[in-house]
Amino acid sequence: MKKSAQMFLVELERKIPREAPLEEKDAFLAYCNEMIQDLIDDGYSEEEAIFKLGNPDSLIYDNFESWFVVKEQKVPRKTMPFFLIITILGLPLWGSLLLAVVLIIFSAYLVIWMIPFVVASFAFTGIVGGLAAAVTSLFAVQDGLFVGVTQFGLGVALFGLGILLTIAFVRISGTFIKWTASLTKRVAKLLFSRRVKFV
């Protein structure tokens, strides 16, 4: 079922935190509607415009993050010493688990940036290797004109490939930065969505 702009705006309105001021809600919905109309004027279909605007949950969280209620776990103050003792005694266990979580998160970042890193490596190798091959082709001429010209041609081709890979790296980096930011927000929300409060 295709989602219309009206349905999309209704869904956004339903997801906005109730505590947010009415002026902010109206301004946000008006902005989203204007963005959709601008994309339609640019030649996109209504469904494509909605897709380019992004995920409703992400839009709401990015614009109304301060209005989301942070859950607090209230702990009686008299239990604080016991809580601290249990925390210290359990350090070998929860410390190991925390280290494992940190390493898993770090691995996720490594996996995300593996492709750009490989592309950048090949780009650097192509540019440096191409320049070196082209320059040293002047000395290779001593072994024969054919050898020198061939090496020069291969150097130019390698240099061109390096330039193309550099352009590809720059273009895909934006996408991977967005993925990294999204992962960071999810991790932060998961780790800091609950607080312990002593009363």
Ranges with pLDDT <50 over ≥5 residues?
A: 194-199
Give the SSE string.
HHHHEHHHE
Reported for the largest beta sheet, the result is: 2 strands, parallel
Strand arrangement, major sheet = 1-2
Number of strands: 2
Average predicted local confidence, pLDDT: 80
Describe the structure.
There is one protein chain. This protein has 199 residues and is mainly alpha-helical. The chain has a domain of 69 residues. Helices cover 78% and strands 5% of the residues. Strands 1-2 form a two-stranded parallel ribbon. The relative contact order is 0.10. The C terminus is likely disordered.
Gist of the model:
The chain is 78% helix and 5% strand.
Which key phrases capture this entry?
199 residues, mainly alpha, two-stranded parallel ribbon, 7 helices, 2 strands, 78% helix, flat, disordered C terminus
Sequence-ordered SSE layout with sheet pairings:
Blueprint: H1 5-15, H2 22-41, H3 46-53, H4 56-64, E1 71-75, H5 80-89, H6 91-140, H7 145-192, E2 194-198
Parallel strand pairs: 1-2
Helix pairs in contact: 1-2, 1-4, 2-3, 6-7
